[in-house]
């Protein structure tokens, strides 16, 4: 087990080979509100227990999203303001912007997409199998299904969806050498989301779509945002948030979900043996718990306060590690066991409640369940044919590539 002194959650390299679950378990046990220094920052509190994480997220007046934003970067106030999206806001402005599209993501509204998600999934599987017995599961399936579906909801032409994925990879993967080649060493882009020049490309993409919807409104989110008369900055960051969140987190969960099934073949066989809708629903929640797609979020203490007996000063950065909360031994029975039938499963992959609970949670769970409902009966066998390549990031629990070999049923 790593000692407290050697744990550095600011180090992206710690997350390259695998999630450092042993380090997080040490923190939960020995120092659940832990001060983590930073080589290039002011340091932050790492909150790793489930109940403490819930307490932070349910008190936005004490632990603010708005004061310093949700990135670990130490930003000047003007930079925080210029890149501020809905997730970087506290009520009431957060509630107004969320309310613009909230109705599209209620359980009833999402259920309308069920048959289309199944159709898209089977078309994607067809196309992947046409590549031959070996292909990259991430590129051909886990990134395609959520992006094709969300492109329709958002209003992105299908023929341009891969552009969204590629820009998003460079935007969100800016700590990974593969995607960080165009990120400057100076502060010239700190006013942009993730301090990445790729944000300018995403802005341009969204503005082009907005211009098209002004001339030809449709029943999609872009048309709604255009009609809402947002400022240019509000529209730009809203589009970035939706275009990335609508694909990245679901994509990574599907990738990790297959990885988990291949490493736990008894769970794969259970799904084959008991292919009920209920079991695929609990499977989706367990995949989200097991491989939490977002490691942490940041808040800033608005006032001097205390958390689990630890004094926190106004202005301190406070990070909540969902990936740790989802393995908390005081909440989950046998948390190191992957169990597709786990119930209850009060995971916090979409957040622990509060105003920032993930807007797309119902859609994401539907997509995860349907992908495996449709995929498993169509394969006689599926196995990894090469090493999994993970994203270098202490923020996203990402898989870049997962080569597989498939024998169709």
UniProtKB/TrEMBL annotation:
It comes from the Bacteria. Transmembrane segments: none annotated. This is Cytochrome P450. Gene3D superfamilies: Cytochrome P450. Belongs to the cytochrome P450 family.
């Amino acid at each position: 087990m790593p000692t407290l002194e050697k744990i550095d959650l600011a180090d992206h390299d710690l997350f390259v080979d695998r999630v450092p679950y042993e380090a997080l378990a040490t923190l939960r046990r020995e120092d659940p509100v832990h001060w983590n220094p930073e080589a290039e920052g002011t340091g932050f509190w790492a909150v790793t227990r489930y109940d403490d994480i819930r307490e932070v997220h349910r008190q936005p007046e004490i632990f603010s999203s708005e004061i310093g934003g949700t990135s670990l970067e130490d930003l000047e106030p003007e930079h925080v303001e210029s890149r501020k999206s809905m997730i970087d806001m506290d009520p009431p402005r957060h509630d107004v912007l969320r309310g613009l599209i909230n109705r599209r993501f209620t359980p009833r509204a999402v259920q309308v997409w069920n048959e289309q998600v199944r159709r898209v999934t089977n078309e994607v599987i067809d196309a992947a199998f046409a590549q031959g017995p070996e292909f990259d599961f991430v590129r051909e399936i886990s990134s395609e299904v959520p992006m094709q579906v969300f492109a329709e909801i958002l209003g992105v032409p299908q023929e341009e969806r891969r552009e969204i994925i590629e820009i998003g990879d460079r935007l969100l993967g800016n700590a990974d050498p593969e995607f960080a080649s165009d990120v400057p060493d100076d502060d010239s882009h700190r006013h942009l989301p993730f301090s990445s020049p790729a944000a300018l490309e995403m802005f341009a993409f969204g503005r082009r779509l907005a211009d098209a919807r002004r001339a030809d409104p449709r029943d999609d989110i872009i048309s709604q945002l255009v009609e809402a008369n947002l400022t240019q900055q509000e529209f730009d960051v809203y589009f970035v948030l939706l275009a990335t969140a609508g694909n990245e987190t679901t994509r990574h969960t599907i990738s990790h979900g297959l990885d988990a099934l291949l490493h736990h073949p008894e769970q794969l066989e259970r799904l084959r043996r008991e292919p009920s809708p209920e079991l695929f629903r609990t499977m989706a929640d367990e995949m989200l718990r097991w491989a939490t797609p977002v490691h942490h979020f940041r808040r800033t203490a608005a006032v001097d306060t205390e958390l689990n007996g630890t004094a926190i000063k106004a202005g301190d950065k406070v990070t909540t590690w969902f990936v740790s909360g989802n393995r908390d031994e005081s909440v989950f029975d046998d948390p190191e066991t992957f169990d597709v039938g786990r119930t209850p499963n009060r995971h916090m992959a979409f957040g622990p409640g509060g105003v920032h609970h993930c807007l797309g949670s119902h859609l994401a769970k539907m997509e995860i369940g349907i992908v495996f409902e449709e995929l498993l009966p169509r394969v006689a066998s599926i196995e990894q044919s090469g090493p999994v390549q993970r994203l270098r990031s202490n923020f996203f629990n990402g898989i870049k590539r997962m080569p597989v070999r498939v024998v169709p049923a």
